[in-house]
Design a protein that fits this description.
It is a single chain. By secondary structure, this protein is of the alpha/beta class. It has two domains: 38-289, TIM Barrel (Alpha-Beta Barrel), CATH 3.20.20; 292-346. The chain has 15 helices and ten strands. It has helices at 2-17, 36-40, 56-64, 85-99, 103-106, 121-128, 146-159, 178-182, 184-197, 210-217, 226-241, 257-270, 282-289, 294-312, 327-342; strands at 47-52, 71-75, 109-112, 137-140, 169-175, 201-208, 245-248, 274-277, 319-320, 323-324. The strands form two sheets. It has an eight-stranded parallel barrel, surrounded by six helices. The protein has a two-stranded antiparallel sheet with strand order 9-10. Helix 7 (146-159) links the parallel strand 4 and strand 5 (169-175). The structure holds coenzyme A (COA) and magnesium ion.
Amino acid sequence: MIRSRISFLSTFLMKNFLNRSIIRSQSSSSSSSIDLNSLSQTLLRRAILYVPGNDQRKIDKAIKSFEKIDSIVLDCEDGVAVKSKDDARKTILNILNQYGSNELLWKKLSVRINSMDSGIAYEDLEIIFSGKIIPRTILLPKVDTKTNIDDFIEYFKKSKINERLKHPIDLITYVESAIGLLDLRDIAKHTIDMCKTLNNMHFAGIVFGSDDFCANIGATRSDEGKEVLMARQHVILVCKSLNLQAIDSVYINFRDLDGLKRQSEEGVSMGFTGKQCIHPDQIPIIQETYRPSDKKIEWAKGLIKEFEQAQQDGRGAFVYHGQMIDMPLLKQAYNVINIAKQIGKV
Ligand code: COA
Ligand code: MG
């Protein structure tokens, strides 16, 4: 029922609002419109779990319980020692070939390559993209400049990888330095434009790499995180202004689950859509905190129903739960239902 309402809603919104550019989103120009169809296909990333790409035991463990994990990041970057990079690339290639036919699992398999400035990202790309199965999501760390994006996109163009793609690749970038943060919106807008030059690349989100960021600005990490508050808020603003997922810091003290819960709740209240994690014990806490509450899901369902009714009655503005409903609230309701659908709550 709700599914048909959503599709009705998206059709309605497409027809009635897009032309008027009321909904604004992923675009380099502030006046163009959101593609609600792509919004409804957004992959769930409440928790993204890093697994060192060379650690077969941990990879097997993550894959065994993949149904309970939103996103598994097979890492080639900082979770892997320099001398084990090649081992990681080959192990990841094997994993993709072995499990790529399981679509549910494949959708959750992401690969974090090394940064474009490291000089070794091309080796990652060369090996990881040499198989039949291509990762669903690529994470690109330490994006400091537009040139980093140009180099990445250029590789895809030259290697003609996108001609072999049957599905789009999601790109997720990292902001981990002062210059990356200061130029973030420009870089993100450029990334959207550059992804459009390839047919099958979708810029999906930004990760805040807090530890590298602190090292870069010379800050000392504290429990309350005052030193990264402004940076976190800035990442959220940029992501929201461009309809991107916003993924919060790692809570590195992985045995302290109370602290993790506190930081996750704070992230949710600030507007983050997900959080990085490094240990399986962190997953249920993060995913539960980042899921919409039953109350919120009911609110969203009711709002969409009221919206439909108002449209049928020819009413423009309408009131729901004492609030005048405007487009941001309608979009929020749509987002809530999108997540709820993916976790089986509607
Ligand atoms: N993914 C999958 N399985 C993991 C895991 C991960 N990230 N972290 C731990 N596990 C597994 C362990 O292998 C162990 O399983 P086992 O008993 O069957 O061997 C189980 O979970 C319990 O692990 P535990 O003993 O509590 O932790 P550990 O000492 O083995 O590992 C870390 C601790 C931090 C080294 C490990 O969690 C890790 O490597 N995390 C990822 C770090 C990373 O990628 N950092 C870079 C991004 S910030
Ligand atoms: Mg980092």
